[in-house]
Design goal:
The protein is α/β, with parallel strands linked by helices. Among the domains are: 78-91 and 112-250, Rossmann fold (3-Layer(aba) Sandwich); 521-648, 2-Layer Sandwich (GMP Synthetase, Chain A, domain 3), CATH 3.30.300.30. It has 20 helices and 30 strands. The chain has an eight-stranded mixed sheet with strand order 12-11-8-6-7-14-15-23, sandwiched between helices. Helix 2 (30-37) packs across helix 3, helix 5 crosses helix 6 and helix 10 (278-291) crosses helix 11 (310-322). The longest helix is centred in the last third of the chain and has 19 residues, at 573-591. The chain starts with 18 loop residues before the first helix and ends in an 11-residue tail after the last helix. The structure holds ligand 6R9. Ligand 6R9 is lined by residues 263, 309-311, 386-389, 411-416, 437, 498-500, 512, 515, 611, 655.
Length: 655
């Protein structure tokens, strides 16, 4: 991206907050001024939302950038803040987690019960020799024990590294080795797509190559057979459920390592993103309170992310529990046993706040409007989106079909590295625009710069950067300070570079345009994949689209689009050809002829990561390596076979 990014998409719709939500909102417009006046004093007040065993002496130590220290000298226990203090305040009987297993089994766990379980797990881990500073790998399905395991580690000061349950043995091995983990917490398996899916064999394969692992703590979830090493393996129900439920939490330094979470980005070796204690919890709790407007007494909150993604860390475990939320947690896939499962769960638990990913929304669009219509979704009052840019059409569909036209949508931009939400509307303040994450939150300074690090004017595009340190920022890459500096702090002097392209509209509101590595250079113009995808999805026949730049002899790169039609659309034979022609015209009309795709393929599925991000790298391979000739409609297996041949054993190591 040599110059600024072309600014093609025009979107003028705007939705002010509902009056009742605005007047009762947790955070109002004055928060922006308050934070602008004195940023550190603002964050200091937010840290006051937590219970500290020892007050800090200094809010921020930034004398050795990019290595920040927040709330220097302060001490606290994260699990105490998420559990004990709510019980002490008389809220022990409040449900913390309504859990729904995929096969239909369920549990409701109160704060008092979650504290008891966490204390037992903390005692069991201590008995297994885990002490403060040790690393523990967690490889679990979406069961309450995943949250308990994380909280138990936090409680004893062990640093957890959650590895997504869909990752391969190699991915797990690399992560265990990089962090020298001492214990792995896993399960026999979990339920996915209507059947048990084993986890223990993957762990066994990994542990054979990981001499640092002393014990494997195994939750019995599916009851499937497991190989057993009586030296190393320990059943959760034997070790944890028989342990004492009394455990006194010790306070740790504000900069004590809380967790490592691996993110692979585009290069091979995954980066162990390190988060610490006080600043992380402060920003996770504040943003959850501010962005989701959580009223802990009345709301039922549901974040549908996997716990192996940073979203599961900050907005299932730490943010919501620090705030005393009641939440729903679901084990399985959205189409098991039927495509209305999500909405059935919203109806059953009267969910008021739903936080999900654009990929899920677009999948629901593909399945059709009539599915959510069969359920009572009237409990919902606020909707959130995270993980990718949400195209205006998906945003509008979400608002109309899930939010019944009345719920504000918060499009939240952040990263594993940022630890918590950075750019988002405030639901009681911001008049939202479909597809825009709008403004940096109070206390956050984001900007868009050109390649000379100059702030671009309103209406311009470029690189998204963060100008000032923030409490939940990554502290380093585990074991590799130099890579931390090189990756995030070297492109622009003194600025954190997030790797994303963005533009400012004429009002100065921010629009995320995807990873800069994905930006296409077509006849000398930088064109964002996001904008072309949004244009495609704005056509009534399209549910989802992924766009890549493929090498082209005349234009340098040419735009190739993979498009999933909506459920009802006929794509057989001539109808498919006609649709493709129409879509090329549609993009050309919406964004201008420069953005007209050279090629459009109709496909049933797209390759995705755990957080629903499209793996454009694989699609680029497909677009470049295969001579497609006249084949304009790729059949199911054609794309999928090509795609899966690029992935080991069908399991992806991407984040
Ligand atoms: C939380 C999370 C981070 C990358 C980020 C960006 C993309 C996330 C987004 C978004 C546009 C949003 N991203 N949220 N892009 N609008 N609301 O996703 O963390 O998995 O580390 O990914 O995801 O490209 O840089 P992570």
């Amino acid at each position: 991206m040599s110059e600024t990014l072309a600014n093609l998409l025009q979107e003028t719709r705007q939705f002010p907050p509902p009056a009742d939500l605005a007047s009762a909102a947790n955070v109002k417009a004055d928060a922006y001024d308050e934070a602008a006046e004195d940023r550190l004093a603002f964050w200091e007040r937010q840290a006051g939302r937590l219970d500290w065993a020892q007050q800090w002496d200094q809010v921020l130590d930034w004398t050795n950038p990019p290595f920040a220290k927040w709330f220097v000298g302060g001490k606290l226990n994260v699990a105490y803040n998420c559990l004990d203090r709510h019980v002490a305040a008389g809220n022990g009987d409040r449900v913390a987690i309504h859990w729904e297993g995929e096969p239909g089994d369920n549990r409701s766990i109160t704060y008092a019960e979650l504290l008891a379980l966490t204390s037992q797990a903390a005692n069991a881990l201590t008995d297994l020799g885990v002490t403060a500073g040790d690393r523990v790998a967690i490889y679990l399905p979406m069961i309450p024990e995943a949250a308990v395991a994380m909280l138990a580690c936090a409680r004893i000061g062990a640093t957890h590294s959650v590895v997504f349950g869909g990752f391969s043995a190699d991915a797990l091995t690399n992560r265990i080795q990089d962090a020298s983990a001492k214990v792995v917490i896993t399960a026999d398996g979990g339920f996915r797509r209507g059947k048990p899916s084993a986890l223990k064999p993957t762990v066994d394969e990994a542990v054979a190559k990981c001499p640092t692992i002393e014990h494997v703590l195994v939750v019995r979830r599916t009851g499937q057979e497991v190989a057993w090493d009586s030296e190393k393996d320990v059943w959760w129900h034997e070790a944890v459920e028989t342990a004492s439920a009394e455990h006194t939490a010790e306070a740790f330094d504000a900069e004590h390592p809380l967790f490592i979470l691996y993110t692979s980005g585009t290069t091979a070796k995954p980066k162990g993103i390190l988060h610490t204690t006080g600043g992380y919890l402060t920003q996770a709790a504040y943003t959850h309170h501010a962005v989701f407007d959580l009223k802990p007494e009345t709301d039922v909150y549901w974040c549908s992310a996997d716990i192996g993604w940073v979203t599961g860390h900050s907005y299932i475990v730490y943010g919501p529990l620090a705030n005393g939320a009641t939440q729903l947690m679901y084990e399985g896939t959205p189409d098991t046993p039927h495509k209305g499962r999500f909405w059935e769960l919203v109806q059953k638990h009267k969910v008021t706040i739903l936080y999900t990913a654009p990929t899920l929304i677009r999948t629901m669009m593909k399945w059709g409007d009539d599915i959510p219509k069969q359920y009572d979704l009237s409990s919902l009052r606020l909707l959130g989106s995270v993980g990718e840019p949400i195209n205006p059409e998906a945003w509008i569909w979400y608002r109309e079909n899930i939010g019944r036209g009345g719920c504000p949508i918060v499009d939240t931009w952040w990263q594993t590295e940022t630890g918590a939400i950075m750019i988002s509307p405030l639901p009681g303040v911001t008049a939202t625009k479909p597809g825009s994450a709008m403004r940096p939150l109070p206390g956050i300074s984001a900007d868009v710069v050109d390649d000379q690090a100059q702030s671009v004017p309103d209406g311009g595009g470029g690189f998204l950067v963060l100008r000032e340190p923030w409490p939940s920022m990554l502290r380093t890459i585990w074991g590799d300070d130099q890579r931390f500096i090189d990756t995030y702090w070297s492109r622009f002097d003194g600025l954190y570079f997030a790797g994303d392209g963005a533009k400012k509209d004429d009002d100065g509101d921010l629009w995320l345009l995807g990873r800069v590595d994905d930006v296409m250079l077509v006849s000398g113009h930088n064109i964002s994949t996001t904008e072309v995808e949004s244009a495609l999805v704005s056509h009534p026949s399209v549910a989802e689209a992924a766009v890549v730049g493929a090498t082209d002899p005349t234009t340098g790169q040419a735009i190739v689009a993979f498009t999933i039609p909506r459920g009802s659309v006929d794509t057989e034979g001539d109808a498919g050809e006609a649709l493709i022609a129409e879509l090329r015209e549609h993009v050309s009309k919406t964004l201008g002829p420069i953005a007209k795709p050279r090629q459009i393929m109709l496909v049933p599925e797209l390759p995705k990561t755990r957080s629903g991000k499209i793996m454009r790298r694989l699609l680029r391979d497909v677009a470049e390596n295969r001579s497609l000739g006249d084949v304009t409609t790729l059949q199911d297996s054609a794309v999928m076979d090509l795609i899966s041949s690029g992935m080991s054993s069908g399991k992806s190591d991407e984040d």
